[in-house]
Design goal:
globular; 7-stranded mixed beta sheet; 2 domains; alpha+beta; PmbA/TldD fold
Length: about 475
């Protein structure tokens, strides 16, 4: 627990004492982590770190300023705060949405404290098992265990304390059979104690993925492009659905992107403010962003502006329902914030981010999706993806994909690419499976770049193009 929150309280009082300040907040954070890496059977680095720092945000003369420091020096902080507002030029007046005062303290339960774990133990298991597979020619594994303790307070009386332990794994393997090679990246993680890291069963996951690569290389067929282009029915697994949800729906529904803030950084959105409530998908599509999913990698109960989190529907039965907002953009839209403000640590400003974003599962078993497709492709995992800067058109390169013949999964197909416009893809969804999976990622956004933990997924989906 952060023993001394006094620096945050003093900083807030100091900020509010300055002339022309209409709002102020303070965010104090301690970050601890240990990590380890193994490459080709050799230790490739290990480390431990601890960071402790403070972020202050102030609205002065209508402008929103952010400063951060890792020094507990109130005089230096005073000097920085007093310089705010000295900069020339015109700027838009910043307003924040009115939000309820919150007072909360929460922590994630741990059966084994995250500090008691050693990430190298699980990496060694994965390394030994992967090395025993003669066809796996390259192995690189990295794991991290960490804890974020944060304390937030603002001028409106909100005060939040959070203690969130987390764990993550990233692996890369290259398998080779009969002169052909294929690579698979695997990312796993969650929130909780060390027992959660152990339950990832990293060694089993690595061996399973290696076996899948081998199966594609040994039994896969390469179809001519003209035949691939004639495929109209695609069953997308939760992994494929997840990356499409995140990239083409989640990012496109971020209010700051819609309203132009990211234009020079990451692009724009196919949506405009006036498109609120517009149909953007088929009736089968409901997409949710929910930070409160227990132990999910994108978990939090209050965002970095002290707003209480909840599961919000970005898309409901095909209609755009709710843009992701923070207090600044919620105010511009005349709404309340939906608690989507996050930063990767105290040193960066909080901006609009996703958390755990998924396609709501339907009522059909995966076999029913195959039966309905009759002929087509089942795409289980991707090798890479690309999307344009308005999130209007995307390409997902299949890693593991299979032909669907007579309503059943058949032989692997090596060179399938799912390529479609965003509107075309989501309007092609005719059935959503009852299966459900969330896949871990680190979402990059902002300038400077911030990577925050997220998950993406949902149920499998049948895409029937051209119906």
């Amino acid at each position: 627990m952060i023993e001394d929150t006094g620096i945050a309280e003093r900083a807030l009082r100091l900020a509010l004492s300055l002339p022309h300040v209409s709002y102020a907040e303070a965010y104090l954070e301690r970050l601890r982590s240990v990590s380890a890496a193994v490459e080709q059977g050799e230790a490739n680095g290990a480390g431990a770190s601890e960071r402790f720092g403070l972020r202050i945000r102030v609205i002065r003369r209508g402008r929103l300023y952010t400063i951060s420091t890792d020094k507990e020096d109130i005089r230096a902080l005073d000097s920085c705060l007093r310089r705010m507002g000295e900069f020339g030029g015109k700027a838009a007046v910043t307003s924040l949405s009115d939000e309820r005062k919150e007072n909360a303290s929460y922590s994630v339960k741990e059966a084994i404290p995250i500090e008691d774990g050693n990430p190298l133990n699980e990496l060694d298991k994965a390394e030994k098992r992967a090395a025993s597979l003669g066809f796996v020619k390259y192995r690189s594994f990295y794991a991290s265990l960490g804890r974020s303790e944060s304390y937030y307070l603002n001028a409106e009386g909100t005060e939040i304390y959070a203690d969130v332990p987390s764990f993550s794994f990233f692996g890369s393997i290259i398998a080779s059979v009969n002169g052909e090679s294929r690579q698979r990246f695997l990312q796993l993680g969650g929130v909780g104690g060390y027992e959660g890291f152990e339950k990832l069963l990293i060694d089993d996951a690595v061996v399973e993925e290696a076996g899948r690569l081998r199966n594609v290389m040994e039994k896969g067929v390469s179809l001519p492009q003209d035949k691939l282009k004639r495929i109209r029915n695609v069953v997308a697994s939760p992994e494929i659905v997840g990356i499409a949800v995140h990239e083409s729906i989640g990012h496109a529904n971020e209010a700051d992107r819609i309203m132009g803030r990211e234009a020079a950084q990451a692009g724009m959105s196919y949506l405009e403010v006036e498109d609120a409530g517009k149909r953007i998908a088929s009736e089968a599509v409901t997409i949710i962003d929910d930070p409160t999913i227990k132990n999910a990698y994108g978990y939090y109960l209050y965002d970095d502006e002290g707003v209480k989190a909840y599961g919000k529907k970005i898309v409901e039965r095909g209609f755009q329902k709710e843009f992701l907002t923070n207090r600044e953009y919620a105010a511009e839209l005349g709404k309340k914030s939906n608690a989507s403000s996050r930063s990767d640590d105290y040193s960066n400003e909080p901006i609009i981010r996703m958390s755990n974003t998924y396609l709501k599962p339907g009522r059909y078993g995966p076999d029913e999706l195959m039966e309905e497709a009759r002929t087509g492709v089942y795409i289980r995992s991707f090798m890479e993806w690309n999307i344009d800067d308005t999130r209007s058109f995307a390409r997902y390169q299949g890693n593991e994909a299979y032909l669907i013949e007579k309503g059943e999964v058949s032989k692997p197909v090596k060179n399938y690419v799912l390529e479609a416009g965003t509107a075309e893809l989501w309007n092609a969804v005719t059935m959503v499976g009852s299966d459900f999976g969330l896949y871990v990622g680190s979402c990059g956004k902002g300038e400077p770049m911030q990577g925050v933990p997220v998950t993406m997924g949902g149920g499998s989906a049948l895409l029937a193009f051209g119906r």
